[in-house]
């Protein structure tokens, strides 16, 4: 026998968030970070480089390359989507803005799929609250909506989603397709066609986004959960078996597709047996999924009787838990720990949502006070630094910015200031509402964490955006190189440049780059300052004259040499 549900919820506690407010809140989180900025270092500009090569027809669509090199992540679909957006975008829209449009839709899809996935999990019979002797318990649909609102707010509150969720990289595509698969597996017992289509898109999308092994693990695991689910929650065992067979069939087709496209590239890297690596992983787990992970642990503890009951009867617990376990295993066995852990956030938020009906008032108050102090403090710091850059008062923050980002000139922009001021006033109103006297709702404990995370992200993407663009972009480096190189050179050789540097010089400088390994006879050469083959006047046995040594103003380790070929 399963133990009774630990959720004791009255009808008055399941008021849903006003839909308009929820949609505006999501828009305020999604849009900043996609609009108004340039491409940033490393993965963001690298992915854009591959998209531009495809859009210009200088790379094979089935084997994308950048400077003759394949991507680190063997993905196809994210680069296709960005390239198609660049090709069909109007001429007045820049390539980097056009490439962000499909990824903006992917983040929106992640939020929507998470809400509906949590909603259908909360509709399952074992997830429902205790029935009262004289009635008054929460109605199933209202309860599921309130839990779904809490799950969506818990996802937005996760600190790790902010930056990685706003980059045009395969990691965001994998996150979106993982969320679609989560929704599909949660909704299949209630609907057939839409969840079935979402399962196909999710599994195929994961496979084509560089994660075929994750698609295999998630697909087979979800099929096993359906197959082993006890009859107490499924009135039609034949339909249950058909769902499991359908998921397994799609998974096998994806495995065949990955084999045909040669997407099986194993990059397993186990953590080293030293304290520093494990300490780094511990810090990552601590902050990246905050505050969802402590709530998820509370859920597993309070619902443990259902979780450990006979067979896999509690689908609302086992499905999200399986997604989390697969993502955590990938985090521990790959070098890209953050991007692997990103895939756990939607289902970690789902588990966190089921903690809300069981939280004691003192725990909720602790979450509120910690959130209020932390995010209000972060917002004050952002405002103080911005005011210092504008007015010089107080002087120390502006001096720190000038020391860390020499050459940066700050300017005042009225619209970002107005948006930031409006967001800050909204945060003050939200705090006032939360501490006021009103009827308790299930999602009240995650309102301040989600609002605080959205506030700080929006302030960074408005008040600090020029500074962040200067620090996190290759544009200042490329602009310095442009003063040394002639206008419209025939070609420029490269030596040791990373993929991101190649993409930056192609995008910001519009330079016709040719890797030196191709034997191109170019009059100029750009060499990475850290490459051992680079010397002060002689490169790869050929006579070169060093014309400039260029460093990134905000990153002194980012250094390139510019050489000119000497006349023979």
In brief, what are we looking at here?
The chain has 568 residues and is an alpha/beta fold. It has helices at residues 19-30, 43-55, 77-88, 95-123, 140-157, 161-164, 170-187, 193-208, 212-228, 237-260, 275-288, 292-302, 304-307, 315-333, 337-341, 345-353, 361-391, 395-404, 414-435, 447-460, 465-472, 475-482, 499-509, and strands at residues 492-495, 513-515, 524-528, 538-539, 542-552, 555-565. Helix content is 58%, strand content 6%.
Structure description:
This protein is an alpha/beta fold. The chain has 23 helices and 6 strands. Helix 8 (193-208) runs parallel beside helix 10. The longest helix is centred in the middle third of the chain and has 31 residues, at 361-391. The termini are far apart. The mean pLDDT is 88.
